[in-house]
Structures are given as structure tokens and as C-alpha cells.
Amino acid sequence: MLQWKWLLFLIILVVVLIFLTIYLLIKRHRGHGYFLSKFSAFTRIRFSGLEKRRQTYCPANNKCQCHLKGSAAHIEPNLLCTHRSPTLYMSFAGAAMVVGGVRTTEWRGSMREIHRDTNDEFDALFFTDPAQCFYLQDPDYQWEGLTYYRNLIKLYGTLYQRVILIGASLGGSMVCMCADLATVSIAFNPILDPVLLGLHWRIMGAFCPARQAEVVRNQVHNTMEKINTNKNDHNCVLHIHWSQLSKADQRQAHGVIGGGKHSKPIQTECLTSVLDFDIDNANMSTSSGVHIWFHRSKEHILAMQLKRTNQLIPMLKRHLTATSIGLNTISHILDEKQRQDLVIINISL
Questions:
Q1: CB 123 within 8 A of CB 111
Q2: Spatial distance between the Cα atoms of 282 and 334, rounded to a whole number of angstroms
Q3: What b/e readout covers 318-341, taking b as 16+ CB neighbours within 10 angstroms?
Q4: Which residue among 121, 264, 268, 325 is the one 20 to 30 A from 83 at the CA level?
Q5: Torsion of CA 18, 21, 26, 29, to 10 degrees
Q6: How many CB atoms lie within 10 A of CB 206?
Q7: Cα dihedral across residues 279, 280, 282, 287: positive or negative
Q8: pLDDT one-digit tens code per residue, 170-220
């Protein structure tokens, strides 16, 4: 009987120590959202500190006062605002737990670099996912995130001449789900099927129930097919960049380009081209289609690696030249002709 009491005491002590450690970690890192975001993902409990970072609107005109401050959780554009730039960037941040906390303005530095030597002004809307579940949770936590963000992009699309979506990993997933609504969409290492993530990624990176993972798969497929078959009422292009030597990226890519361990079929109706990365390739600045690019890299953080090697900004500039291509130019006609040829490469295993 005495042994059972000691065993019970030890169990209680261990549980108390675990909760105390979690509490201290949350308290220490509460400003970065390290652990609150994961707790929110599993419990669906909203935290005001995280919700304030859900959306950040940065107009090019610093004197613009048309948008209320503190309305990040449910940002709505002021339809009467007269200070808008022709171009709007919409950035979807990746998994906070992996990169070290909720990043409120991810890609902002790269946007500035792209436009540094130009007179082009741009507005930017930065998104984060407090629940870390592929943006599938809306601000009211009713699993209506896909509808919420697509409606928001549609609304902004009526206010700007060009809408550019950009994101990596978890953020890249949302880019692929909404690319049919934008002018140019760029996704790095997107997770198109959350079920294929390893256990450590699910614990430390992003949480997504199986039933919601199906939402991601279906929407990505529908979006790609819609773009590739020109079912939109406007021209749009989606560029996906994957690391060819990354096991995680290979699993995601095989679901689209076929092959892999389970010999999956090629989704030809979704793809325009699948190529090794070449910045001089004409498809880099095309204005339509779904284009997949493979880089000789082992890193899932491909965009960061490209930035370190000074390749990211020139590559983004090539993609964004498509925003100035007219529908009836010779370049567009050539692009349409190139879309007829689908090139598939083998992923090195």
C-alpha cells in the first residue's frame, strides 16, 4: 500500500513539474507566440495577443488614415480610401513554432528590395495564422478560414490592379489554395497534403485534423486545375518552388507530378510545366499557368537559402514582370503556345 502511495505521489509530482515548465516557457516567450499558438491550435482557444497579429495592413502612403488601427482580427478595407497603390502584396507567414514565433510582416524586406530601384509603390497585407492550422481557422474559430480568406482576397481584388500572393511552407499552402484569385502567386515549399507531414512537423510545426487536410488537398487541386485550364475571368499564374533533394518536399510534390513510393498518377490537368530551376527560362515571367520549379537543395527553407545566396530577389523580379504583360501582347501569345508542352522531370530519391 505504501508503494502505491509513493508511486501516486511521483506521478502527481511529474505532472505538476510538466505543467510548471510549460507555464514558464509560455510566460517567457509569450511575446513571440511560441507555445500559445500550439495551445490555441489544439484547444481552439483564442488569445487576444495572437489575434492582434492575424492581419497587418501597411499602405504605401504613410499619411493614410482610412483604416482603423487595432482591427487586425477582422480587417475590412475602407472602400472610400483614395490612397491605394496599383499593386497589393498579400503575404502568408509560415509556421511560427519552427521559425521562432509569430512573424507579423514576413516577406516585407524582400518586397522593398524588389521595388528599391523603381518608382512603383505597393500596399501590403500581412497574414499570420495564430492557430497554426493552415489558415483553416477563421477569426471566430469555426473552421471557415478558407472561405474567410478567399472572400477577403476577392474583395481586395476589386480594389487593386494587381494582387500578388506570396508565402512559404504553411503559408505557401494558402497561396496555392487562393492563387486563382490573384494576378501572380508564388509559393515556396508548400504543404499540399498535411497528412504527409512527419510526426515532428505535426507537433512542432502545424496542426491539421485529417478531415481538414482533405479540404487543403481538394482546394489546391481545384485551384490548379482552374488556372491551368483558363477557367478564370482574368489572367493568373502560380509558381511553386520545391527543394528537389528534400524528403518532405518530395512527398508533397509526388501528389501532383506523380511517381514516388506509391506510384501516384500525374495530375496533368493541373500542371503547365515541371522544370529544373533556370532563371533564364521564359516560363519564369509567364502570365498564366501552373509552373513547378525544382531546386538542387536539401532544405525545406528554400526561400531563406536563396536569399542567402542572393538569388531570391532576381528570381522574384522575373516572376513579377508578368504583372505588366498585357493580354494581347506577343509575349502572352508565346506563353500560351508554351503552355501546350508539359515537361516532367524525375525527382532524385
A1: no
A2: 9
A3: bbbebbebeeeeebbeebeebbee
A4: 325
A5: -140
A6: 27
A7: positive
A8: 899 999 999 999 999 999 999 999 888 766 565 555 677 888 889 999 999
Q: What single letter denotes the amino acid at residue 11?
A: I
Enter the C-alpha cell of residue 137: 481557422
What DSSP designation does 259 have? B
Which amino acid would we find at residue 283?
A: N
Helix (H) or strand (E) holding 262: none
pLDDT tens sequence across 7-22: 888 888 888 888 777 6
Task: Note the pLDDT of residue 265.
Answer: 83
Contacts of residue 303, Cβ cutoff 8 Å, sequence gap at least 6: 168, 188, 189, 241, 312
Decide: residue 281, CB within 10 A, 0-12 exposed, 13-18 middle, 19+ buried: middle
273/341 Cα distance (integer angstroms): 7
CB 117 within 8 A of CB 138: no
* Residues whose CB is less than 8 angstroms from the CB of residue 25 and which lie 6 or more positions away in sequence, other chains included: 34, 35
Segments making up each domain of the chain, as ranges: 30-62+85-325+332-338
Question: By CB neighbour count within 10 A (0-12 exposed, 13-18 middle, 19+ buried), where does 194 fall?
Answer: buried
Q: Which residues of 122-152 are buried (b: 16+ CB within 10 A; e: fewer)?
A: bbbbbbbbbbbbbbbbbbebebebbebbbeb
Class of domain 30-62+85-325+332-338: alpha beta
* Sign of the CA dihedral with 34 first, then 35, 39, and 45 last: negative
Residue 119: all three cell numbers together = 518608382
Among 199-203, 267-271, 310-314, whose mean pLDDT is lowest? 199-203
Which amino acid is residue 74, in one-letter code? H
